């Protein structure tokens, strides 16, 4: 498997940040703000993020823009 986390069901904060080209502090901010669901392994500091939840952060840059073709 690739080290970038692509194809994995769960990603670490570092992998998620790399995948979306964001800083780890941005990912942690999304988690703290409730915009991104994350899981902590019992008894460990490691935080995991489900790939589908990470992808749900993405939204179209121009959602439902009407066609300008005449």
Proportion of residues in extended strands: 5-15%
Secondary structure tally: strands: 3
Order of helices and strands: EHHEEH
Shape: elongated
Q: Can you list the strand order of the major beta sheet?
A: 1-3-2
As a percent range, the share of helical residues equals 25-40%
What is the typical, i.e. mean, pLDDT? 86
Low-confidence stretches: none
Oligomer: single chain
Count of alpha/pi helices: 3
Main sheet overview: 3 strands, antiparallel
Radius of gyration computed on alpha carbons: 15 Å
Class based on secondary structure composition and strand pairing = alpha+beta
Terminal Cα span: 48 Å
Task: Walk me through the structure.
With 70 residues, this protein is α+β, with helices and mostly antiparallel strands. It has a domain at 10-55. It contains three helices and three strands. It has helices at 13-20, 24-32, 51-55, and strands spanning 10-12, 39-40, 47-50. Helix 1 packs across helix 2 (24-32). The longest helix has 9 residues, at 24-32. The radius of gyration is 15 Å and the shape is elongated.
Write the layout of secondary structure elements.
Blueprint: E1 10-12, H1 13-20, H2 24-32, E2 39-40, E3 47-50, H3 51-55
């Amino acid at each position: 498997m690739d080290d970038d986390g692509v194809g994995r069901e769960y990603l670490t904060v570092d992998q998620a940040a790399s995948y979306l080209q964001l800083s780890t502090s941005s990912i942690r901010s999304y988690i703290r703000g409730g915009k991104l669901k994350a899981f902590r392994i019992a008894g460990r500091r490691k935080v995991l993020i489900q790939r589908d939840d990470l992808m749900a952060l993405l939204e179209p840059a121009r959602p439902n823009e009407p066609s300008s073709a005449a």
